[in-house]
Every structure is written in C-alpha cells, then in structure tokens.
Specification:
alpha/beta, eight-stranded mixed β-sheet, 8 strands, 17% strand, globular
Length: 296
C-alpha cells in the first residue's frame, strides 16, 4: 500500500514536473518545496556550511554535538539529472545516513546545468573529493543517488587514474551511469518507473551535456574500462528504467576485480531509500550501515 501510494504521488508530482514543466528553475523550486513538506532533519542533527570546492558549496551534515574524530566521513553527491537537486532536497536523507553509519556527511552542492554545462559537475566532484580527503581523519566513503551516483563513480575512477586517495568504499543508489541511455530497462521498465522516463532523461542530458558526447567517461562512467575500485555497494530497484545501469555496472566492476555488494529491491521507485515512509528505505539504510561497518 505504501509503495503504491508513493508511486502514485511521484507520478503526479516529480514525474509530471520533469516531463511537462519547461522551466528548470521552477522544477527546482517545486522539488525543494515538495521534499520540505514530506521530510525534515531528524532531531539532534544539523546541516552547516562548510566551504567551497571550485563551484561546489559544501555542507557538513551530522550530529549537533559532533561525531567522533575518527568517525567515517561520507562525501555525498545528490541526484536530480544534473539539473535539479540541492541541500534542501537531500539534507534530511543525508542526516539519516549519518545517523545510520555513526559518521558525518560532507554534502557537495555542485554546479548544475543548463547554467553550468559538462564537465562542471565532474570538476566540482573531483575538487570535493580532494577536500574530503584532507578532512577525513578516519575512513572515507563516496556516495550518491541517481546522477549523483554516476558522479560518485566517475570521481572515484578519476581518483584511481590520477593516483589520488582512494575511498574505503562507494555507495551507489540507483546510479545513472550511462547517459547514452542504452540499457534495455529503458524500454522494459518504461511502464513501471514512477519518476523517470526516456523523455525526461533526454531533457536532463541535453541541459547538462549540450552537444558533448554522452559516452564520455566523465559523464557515463559505465564506459570507463579502468574498473578496479574499492568495494562498491549498489542499491537499486528492479522496476526502474535505470535498472540496467546498475546491473551492467555490477558485472563490469566484478570483471575488473572490484568487490560488489548488489542489493536489488522489487517494485520500488527510483532512489527509494530517500523516501523514509517506505519500509524498504529503512532496510536500504541498514544495508548501507552494514557496508560501512564492514570496510575496516
């Protein structure tokens, strides 16, 4: 019942805005207001400004009294198709993530299209990782959902290629890792996905990439052959159009020698761990907590 109600609500709000609202700024305002109505920071947690990384505004999200000095630091990249999403839409989830892992989240509010075209988000992401690496006193993780999941992966791949500090693990929630939109689930799950469609993904891609190659590895990290990375946790729904971004990525990473923990859920909407009303969201957070605890 809760899943069906959530899917219906998403179809009538977020999906409709992505498909029909022509003005990106309006979509951003609507999304932030929508999340603000249904979610809030848990008691005892705060989000505080925490500097800049090129064009990304950084915020620290964690306990008001502060986490332990050696607590894990999670660098988080939000979703939104590279055109929407912000601290307002993701702060509450990141606070729950900090609570579940006993750590602190460094939230990177990176530059968005169409004002800032590719590779602006990628450049901000690499700069944010450098900043997070300098701050982390204990274990360091990179995480993200949807477009932010793809960005998290691209940043980790860049770190490996450039000899930068590697995170202790990656947490990817419904990652958008293929901006060519070539996964079979783009068609197979078109009738089931309550939030995304090929129409709105094409719109997002155009607003961010403009005329750049969608197969560029910085935008579509699925196509990066250098896939040996720290352990990866993949959480996704079998009903979303981006399902095969996750399944193909899991296969490729394993082939390259990366340890992958793959946790698919049936019937859930895209990025469902963000919707705290869903029991599956709470289960997904527990999976993240277990994954973080295991990387020692």
């Amino acid at each position: 019942m809760l899943t069906a109600a959530t899917n219906m609500l998403l179809r009538r709000t977020v999906r409709r805005w992505f498909d029909l609202e022509p003005d990106v700024l309006t979509v951003r305002r609507k999304l932030d207001a929508f999340i603000g109505l249904i979610d809030a920071l848990p008691g005892g947690y705060q989000a505080a400004p925490s500097g800049q990384a090129i064009g990304a505004t950084l915020h620290t999200i964690g306990p008001e009294r502060g986490a332990a000095p050696d607590a894990p630091l999670i660098l988080y990249f939000h979703g939104g198709g590279y055109i929407v999403g912000s601290l307002a839409s993701h702060a509450a989830f990141c606070a729950r993530l900090a609570r579940q892992t006993g750590g602190t989240v460094l939230f990177a509010d990176y530059r968005l299209g169409p004002e800032h075209r590719f590779p602006a988000a990628f450049e901000d992401g690499v700069a944010a990782l450098l900043e997070a690496s300098a701050r982390a006193q204990g274990r360091l993780f990179i995480a993200g959902d949807s477009a932010g999941g793809g960005l998290a992966l691209a940043v980790a791949q860049a770190a490996a290629a450039q000899g930068l500090r590697q995170p202790d693990g990656l947490i990817l929630i419904s990652p958008w890792a293929d901006l060519t939109l070539s996964g079979p689930s783009m068609v197979a799950n078109a009738a089931f996905d309550a939030m995304l469609s090929s129409k709105n993904l094409i719109r997002m891609r155009a607003a961010y990439l403009d005329d750049k190659d969608p197969a560029d590895r910085r935008a579509s990290p699925l196509f990066d052959p250098n896939t040996h990375l720290p352990p990866v946790l993949l959480i996704y729904s079998l009903a979303e159009v981006l399902r095969d971004d996750a399944t193909r990525l899991a296969t490729q990473l394993r082939h390259g020698g990366t340890e992958v923990t793959e946790v698919p859920f049936r019937g859930m909407p895209h990025v469902f761990p963000l919707f705290r009303i869903l029991p599956a969201a709470r289960r997904a957070l527990r999976e993240i907590g277990k994954f973080v605890a295991a990387q020692r």
